[in-house]
Amino acid sequence: MSRLPDTVLGAIAGVLEASAILQPDSAEYEQDNHSYFSAFENELDPSVIAKPNSAKQVQDLIKALRPHIIAGSVQIAIRGSGQTPFAGSANIDNGVTIDLRDLKGITLSEDRSTVAIGVGETWANVYAELEQQHLTTPCGRVARLGVSEFILGDERADLWIALKGGLNNFGVVTCIKMKTIPSRNIWGGVTYYTPGTFSELLKHACDFANNETDEDAHIMCSAGYGFGHQAVSCVMYHTEGKENPPALRRFTSIEPQIEQMCTMRTSKHLEFTEELSRFSNDGQRQYWATITIKPDISLMETFHDKWQETLATIKDAEGFIFSFGFHPLTKALLENSEKAGGNAMAIPPSDGPLFVILIKPIWTQPRDDGRIFAAVGGLVDELRRLAREKGLLHRYIFTNYGYQKDDIIAGYGEKSVARLRETRRKYDPEDVFSRGVPGGFKLPNKS
Q1: What is the C-alpha separation between 332 and 334, in angstroms, rounded?
Q2: FAD linked oxidase N-terminal domain: which residues (predicted)?
Q3: What is the pLDDT of residues 265-275, one digit of tens each?
Q4: Is omega for the bond preceding 444 within 30 degrees of 0, making it cis?
Q5: Which segments of the chain have a pLDDT < 70?
Q6: Residue 290: its pLDDT value, please?
Q7: Pairing between strand 321-329 and 217-226?
Q8: How far apart are CA 403 and CA 406, in angstroms?
Q9: Alpha-carbon Rg for the chain in angstroms
Q10: How far apart are CA 188 and CA 208, in angstroms?
């Protein structure tokens, strides 16, 4: 670990109190720097962790660091909740990590139609606060995750679009305004099945993606391995609270089920997001990889076979858990996104429906890192090749599941990338966030 130049330390000290500047060999630094979602982020060592507690402090900190970034004497990382799992996405060796988790606040507007949320909040806090007012807001599905990981917005139309998918290429978001909706009962949960049901679940998931018209029904399907056993599952919800509605009966009727594990019930938004929080833990050796395809039963059966082949080669790793998930993006979802103003991903409704494929390994020992990364990387490359050969691979790569080698923003399409470059020239003409923030997914340079 290298020490920052005194001029850089002085710039930070000119903005933040000493207690908000965490340096190595302090208990506060160690606690903060080992609180990421993945072990790979925990293993980096910034020279300083800066913890602003207001939008003004963030603004002043970036202004103070700007000349040092342009001069090349420092680089920074921007941390929201720290959920992106690959090393360097929200932490940095020998630089400054700006930790935004002290930017708190949940403020309901007078007419109760919107809520302003500090990016340091978690969805659990947001949903719990709104639930007291019999309200909620439609966003993150995992309660313990941070607000900044899921949605970005701004009142400037071009910047608003850029930040909805543009990630850390344009600036630092400190507060988000969300529309509120009445908090109603939701029916849903998780249904688990024996491994032999995968083909039936897949058939119904493809039918759901292609044909279902009930926009209040939602599903996420997966096959999984852990602790020497396999299972198949479907997370499903009906947001109008209809118990076992027709749209979901194709999934609730699959047998045999592992009944002691199933959790279908009527509850509230907060409780369902808390359930999904229990599916993962911070600090593990874990990451996500993903591709997007057009739903196709034959291709997905082949994907499942390839996943099983890969599993057989690495399941002896200590503490190994392995998921193969597929989540539909329906035409209705894409149409509603377009009506709401669109985003930088620029997926036209005519491209739907789509499946977002999730490959997620978890393990405990560093000695297994190399072979697991190689095996899973090879698997994802093979899935991408198979989908491309059948003409079913889509350009989009879901940002939250993207791996560090993925060219995420290039997957938004040439027109969207051109608009993002123009927005960057307008709002960051000196390329402070391109030069100074090396982590995360970057806007590709013009070839």
Answers
A1: 5
A2: 46-143
A3: 999 999 999 99
A4: no
A5: 1-2, 149-157, 446-447
A6: 97
A7: antiparallel
A8: 5
A9: 22
A10: 16
